[in-house]
Amino acid sequence: MTTSSVLDDAPLNGFHKKLALYSSGGPFLDGYILSIVGVAIVQLGPQMHLSDAALGLIGASALIGIFFGAFLGGYLTDKFGRQVLYTIDLIAIIGCSVAQFWATDPVWLFVLRLLIGMAVGADYPIATSLLAEFTPRRYRGPLLGGLMVMWFVGAATAYVVGEALLTVDGTGWRWMLASAALPALLIVLLRLGTPESPRWLAKKGRVDEANAVVRKVFGDQASISDLPEEEHESVGLMLLWRSGYVGRMLFVSAFWTCSIVPLFAVYAFGPRILGALHLNGHLANIGSALITVFFVVGCVLAMVVINRMGRRALIIHSFTWSGLALLVLGLFPSAPAAVIMILFAAYAVLIGGAQNLQWIYPNELFPTEVRGTAVGLASSLSRIGAAIGTYLVPLALTSWGIGPTMLVAAAITLLGAGISMRWAPETHGLALHESAALAEPATANAEPRSTHHVM
Question: I need a surface site. Which of 224, 252, 413, 431 has the fewest CB within 10 A?
Answer without folding.
Answer: 224
